[in-house]
Specification:
By secondary structure, the protein is an alpha/beta fold. The protein has helices spanning 17-27, 48-58, 79-89, 108-117, 147-154, 169-174, 185-195, 218-230, and strands spanning 5-11, 37-43, 68-73, 94-97, 103-104, 122-130, 138-141, 166-168, 200-211, 238-239, 250-254, 267-269. It has 8 helices and 12 strands.
């Protein structure tokens, strides 16, 4: 049985308006399974450019008709408290997280929501980073997929990419909700959820895009994710034909070098 769900997206003065605009459209109008509502938490005063995007969102210009609530906090309270306020405002038990500088690929919710509806409490995914200042032009951030592997990683570091997760609000509340821990609010929450017995998993496919460079196209993001599914490095493996952002076709890795023989000729499924 399908369940209604909310998207929870915080924004603050340090975010960039073009990224925020793209993020909003990517979790609403561009999704093959659209959310039942979008809740935007404005964490304190924001510059005019972000305020202008918010006005357009409230006018329905970017969301494709998805009902939207803008919760404006009078002062900046930090991510944990902003998300707690947002969770209180969400109308639905199932909540998908998104950040104001990330893009969700079009089939993200179509794939993740059935996993929650099938009995999981928390589901994340791999993501692709574009244009990091100290790293390569693109990098796939893949994480363990099974409950046991995730629990093991949680002993040492965050086993989820925060802007990729969907969870049950009741499971978040059972673990005590978001608590302030600078730059680690999500890790602290997820570790407590796992310890409390939440059923968790990660999708190995990339469903979100993050980075500091100009926002990539969905096709570029999907292409960057492809080698990770084939078992090759981005430099040594390319799909037999360029995938489209909504493709579900199976293809084969090609062009692998001797340094990555495990991926050569292996069947792989497009990651969107």
């Amino acid at each position: 049985m399908t369940e209604p769900f909310s998207v929870l997206l915080p924004v603050y003065r340090g975010d960039r308006a073009p990224f925020f605009e793209r993020a909003v459209a990517s979790v609403t109008a561009e999704q093959t399974r659209r959310p039942d509502e979008l809740v935007i938490v404005v964490d304190g005063p924001v510059p005019d450019a972000i305020a202008d995007v918010l006005r357009r969102v409230e006018a329905g210009e970017l969301t494709g008709g998805v009902p939207t609530r803008v919760l404006a906090l009078p002062e900046n309270v930090g991510l944990a408290r902003a998300l707690e306020a947002g969770l209180d405002a969400c109308a639905h038990e199932v909540v998908a997280r998104a950040d104001a500088d990330d893009i969700s690929l079009p089939r993200r919710f179509e794939v993740q929501l059935p996993l929650i509806e099938g009995g999981l409490d928390l589901v994340g995914s791999a993501i692709v980073e574009f244009g990091t200042e100290d790293g390569p032009d693109q990098m796939v951030r893949a994480l363990p997929v099974s409950q046991a592997e995730i629990a093991e990683m949680a002993r040492f570091r965050d086993p989820f990419n925060h802007p990729s997760v969907v969870y049950r609000r009741s499971a978040v509340r059972a673990a005590g909700g978001y608590e302030h821990l600078d730059k680690m609010e999500d890790y602290w929450l997820f570790a407590r959820m796992i310890a409390a017995g939440a059923a968790v998993a990660n999708s190995p496919r990339c469903w979100s895009v993050t980075g500091s460079a100009p926002a990539p196209t969905d096709a570029a993001a999907a292409t960057a994710c492809w080698p990770a599914r084939c078992g090759c490095s981005a430099a040594s493996c390319a799909p037999a034909s360029p995938p489209g952002p909504s493709s579900s076709a199976t293809s084969r890795c090609g062009g692998c070098t001797a340094t990555s023989p495990s991926g050569c000729g292996r069947s792989c499924i497009a990651p969107w």
